[in-house]
Amino acid sequence: MDFRSNSPVLTASTVVLNMIWWMVMIAAVGVGILHRDQCPLEPHIPVYLTVTGASGICSLLACFTWLITGSFWVYSVYPPSSSGWDRSCHRTTYMLAFTVTTLLWGAVGLCCCGSLLLCVFSRTCDRCTYETLDGSNEPAQTRT
């Protein structure tokens, strides 16, 4: 099976989402450590940030690798023989694995689509002008 992406947009979207995730997790670790003694109202909040960030960093790589591995195992035997469930895999076990894997890939796809839309809208907004009723293309605060 070839898992390489043929779409540069999909690759770019995945990279952007990963960068955002890494930045948020690194920020959580950093803020949690830097301000570990500065939350007297609830002193566990900085600990929560530190642990969440650290586990997020570790688990993102592990989860994605495991999803790819599980996809190979689950999809490589699809469709299972409906008459020979005894010889192939317990029906409920296989169907749950198939459903979970498919839903996770759907979530990955939605995240990629969301980042693509974000990219498109940000480019569209960059091209917007400050066109006003009098026809000038300057923001109101710069006109005299």
TrEMBL record:
Highest rank taxon of the organism: Eukaryota
What lineage is on file? Eukaryota, Metazoa, Chordata, Craniata, Vertebrata
Give the organism, scientific name: Oryzias javanicus (Javanese ricefish)
Q: Know the name of this protein?
A: Uncharacterized protein
Q: List membrane-spanning regions.
A: 12-35, 47-74, 94-121
InterPro entries on file? TMEM272
Key words of the record: Membrane, Transmembrane, Transmembrane helix
Q: Does the keyword Membrane apply?
A: yes
